[in-house]
Amino acid sequence: MLMDSVIGKTVIVTVDRPLGSYHSVHKDIYYPINYAYVEDVMAPDGEEQDAYILGVDEAVETFTGIIIAIVHRNDDVEEKWVVAPEGTSFTKEEIREQIHFQEQYFDGEIAM
Q1: Which DSSP string corresponds to 56-102?
Q2: 105 Cβ contact partners less than 8 Å away, ≥ 6 residues apart
Q3: Cβ-based burial of 60 (10 A; exposed 0-12, middle 13-18, buried ≥19)
Q4: Which of 4, 14, 44, 68 has the greatest number of CB atoms lying within 10 Å of its CB?
Q5: pLDDT tens, the chain, 112 aa long
Q6: C-alpha–C-alpha distance, residues 6 and 13, integer Å
Q7: What are the C-alpha distances in Å from 108 to residues 6, 75, 76?
Q8: Helix (H) or strand (E) holding 111
Q9: 79: how many CB neighbours lie within 10 A of its CB?
Q10: CB-count burial class (<10 Å; 0-12, 13-18, 19+) for 41
């Protein structure tokens, strides 16, 4: 499936790294936003598709939102989806700022 074709679709995501938590392995990575996965959608790394949740300012367990962007990593097999509440919008720069905590380690670009 062409990943860009998912932009605009509604998804339900399960949060495995809630806002305010730290990465289980890389203890210096703090999550200023909720980080989740889409059940039953397999990513190229063999794991379920990861997603950043923007526009939600509290830790949540699950979330239903719209895919507003795809983060293409040029130096990794993974792509990350960016999910936000219906009716909200973010610029590429706003997205970049909010996901910088993790994406700073990769060469990537944002498709909208």
Answers
A1: --S--SEEEEEEEEEEEETTSS-EEEEEE-TT----HHHHHHHHHHH
A2: none
A3: middle
A4: 68
A5: 455 589 999 999 999 999 999 998 989 999 999 999 999 999 988 999 999 999 999 999 999 999 999 999 999 998 999 999 999 999 999 999 999 999 999 999 999 9
A6: 14
A7: 18, 8, 9
A8: strand 108-111
A9: 19
A10: middle
Instruction: Give the length of the chain.
Output: 112
Sign of CA dihedral 47, 39, 105, 2: positive
Query: How do beta strands 79-84 and 48-53 pair?
Result: parallel
List the one residue out of 29, 26, 7 whose CA is nearest residue 100: 29
